[in-house]
Amino acid sequence: MAAITLQKLNKHYGTLFHAVKDVDLEIADKEFVALVGPSGCGKSTTLRMIAGLEDITSGDIRIGNKVVNHLPPRDRDVAMVFQNYALYQHMSVYDNLAFGLRNKKTAEAEIKAAIDRAAGMLGLHDLLQRKPRQLSGGQQQRVALGRCIVRNPQVFLFDEPLSNLDAKLRAQMRIEIKRLHAEIPTTSVFVTHDQVEAMTLGDRVVIMRDGRIQQIGTPLQVYGKPSNKFVAGFIGAPAMNFIDVGVRSAAGVTSVEAEGLRLTVGPADASALAAYSGRRVILGVRPEHLMLGGGAPGLGFDARVEVVEQLGSEILLETRVGSASVTAARVPAETVIARGDQVRLSAQAGRLHFFDPETELPIS
Ligand code: ATP
């Protein structure tokens, strides 16, 4: 069993910089957790503290049931995959894979069996005699993964391992990592700044900002019920639209209004917004929940097209509504549309988000 528990984990760099703030996180045995957030949010520092590569300032880290706060990395039974692969350049792929086990004085026959198995899983058999410089980036990253697998650790730690790969390879490696986790389920923590990577890989996603956890949840939870405006804007691509609106309730009908926009909200949103009548709130609506055309009554508005991005499968529209810019996705690719056109957009019922402008917390 290798659950990981972080309790009130803090990291200060010097006296001035507080990089990780009171992080509490429980990762279940065999769970795959993705740690995501913008550059500098403290995700790598958190991972490096779990690995033992960075001292902790305060708090506790448990792996299995053991407090590992001050254990050196080699005694934590974790294997880490780095962005730059960290392979030994002068050694063959086989020797790179064997290195950790030889250090542990494992018998050569056992090492060979472990390498055979890992090479089979990762398609490395034909590359075993090559040196890392004779491999592509994707192949090198597979070797780095293989090196972790042969060690059969309790925990895999990934520090942005796909960042140096091109988009297509990244997508392929994502699938390989997912397949690997299905074949040898091992507790895994995967750090990335790419929310698509986090969402597609993680059983759960942990979103960090300025050293603090903002939300922990399954991909569906963080997408559907973001814990604040930051998470709402960070998760999902293209990003959620935010529009400053006023709330009006009259004759039993609640609407939210801005220049060029008046949306009638459904009963659930109306009751959530009751306390905000006459005040301003932030309306959030995802581009994929805005459709071209009439849609549900009370949810349509006119927009002027500013940019048309043809993606082949669909069109992405950048539009202007009053003073707000609004992105709409899911416009059929064959739609004849050009900059300057006036279009009718409509929001999907039940897909509106509202945030308090001061606290940025969801209004629900
Ligand atoms: P990135 O995606 O850019 O790697 P990150 O979320 O992984 O970002 P960390 O590497 O954890 O961020 O760094 C968190 C903060 O701590 C950053 O502001 C960084 O500048 C700072 N930091 C990291 N290492 C040190 C260090 N050795 N000394 C001082 N400050 C540091």
TrEMBL record:
It holds the Pfam family OB_MalK. GO terms for molecular function: ATP binding. Residues 4-235 form the ABC transporter domain. The keyword Acetylation does not apply. InterPro entries: AAA+_ATPase, ABC_transporter-like_ATP-bd, ABC_transporter-like_CS, ABC_transpr_MalK-like, ABC_transpr_MalK/UgpC-like, Mo/tungstate-bd_C_term_dom, NA-bd_OB-fold, OB_MalK-like. CDD domains: ABC_MalK_N (cd03301). Keywords: ATP-binding, Nucleotide-binding, Sugar transport, Transport. Belongs to the ABC transporter superfamily. Involved in beta-(1-->2)glucan export. Transmembrane domains (TMD) form a pore in the inner membrane and the ATP-binding domain (NBD) is responsible for energy generation. This is Multiple sugar transport system ATP-binding protein. It comes from Bradyrhizobium algeriense.
